[in-house]
Specification:
Structural class: mainly alpha
Strand content: under 5%
Helix content: over 70%
Order of helices and strands: HHHHHHHHHEEH
Number of domains: 1
Number of strands: 2
Distance between the termini: 13 Å
């Protein structure tokens, strides 16, 4: 059941939330893992902080606070990645900074702030983060194999000699995303 939920209820695919990093930073599997882990950590940490502050946060400042918190964690992620994973940081470029105002992260934070219970909000943040990770990593692997003939930098037999250049470019992201949306649509139909 959970496997179907990861596909049929994935926030990137259902609401197109977080689509920018999912499309832009999935040219290679390595960049996808870097983006996925960063977004997951930013999502979980910012949701935990919002959950801890939910009683003292009024509706009027919830959105600005959510953006400031996610921007803070995105900045920390950028600095850590620049220091310890400079190659991955260079692959992600500006898209890591965009996570600060990513609709999926901010929306999740606002929902967390209105939920009762720290455990429930933490659980939902982890689930949403895992769903995002799964989608972004699959997109990165597919695009790297078809576009470059490699997977995590290692040559893949047959595909190394038969690459499709469009998958290494922006258009490839839209093609893979459309295919994954179609697969998710099939799972949603099965669930009904």
């Amino acid at each position: 059941m959970m496997e179907k939920d990861i596909i049929s209820k994935n926030p990137v695919m259902v609401l197109f939330l977080g689509a920018c990093p999912a499309l832009a930073a999935t040219t290679t599997a390595t960049a996808s893992v870097g983006m996925a882990v960063s977004v997951c950590l930013i999502l979980v940490l910012s949701s935990v902080l919002m959950s801890l502050m939910r009683k003292g946060v009024g509706d009027a400042i919830r959105l600005p606070l959510a953006i400031v918190i996610s921007a803070g964690f995105a900045s920390i992620a950028q600095m850590v990645m620049a220091a310890y994973l400079p190659k991955v940081y260079a692959m992600l470029g500006v898209y890591l900074a965009i996570v600060a105002v990513n609709a999926m992260v901010v929306t999740h934070q606002q929902n967390t702030a209105s939920q009762e219970g720290f455990g429930a909000s933490l659980k939902q943040a982890v689930i949403t983060g895992i769903e995002f990770c799964a989608l972004v990593i699959v997109m990165g692997i597919v695009r790297e194999i078809l576009g470059n003939g490699t997977c995590f930098g290692a040559k893949v037999p047959f595909f190394a000699n038969h690459t499709i250049a469009v998958f290494g470019k922006a258009g490839g992201a839209f093609i893979v995303f459309a295919i994954l949306l179609a697969v998710a649509g099939c799972f949603r139909k099965e669930a009904k």
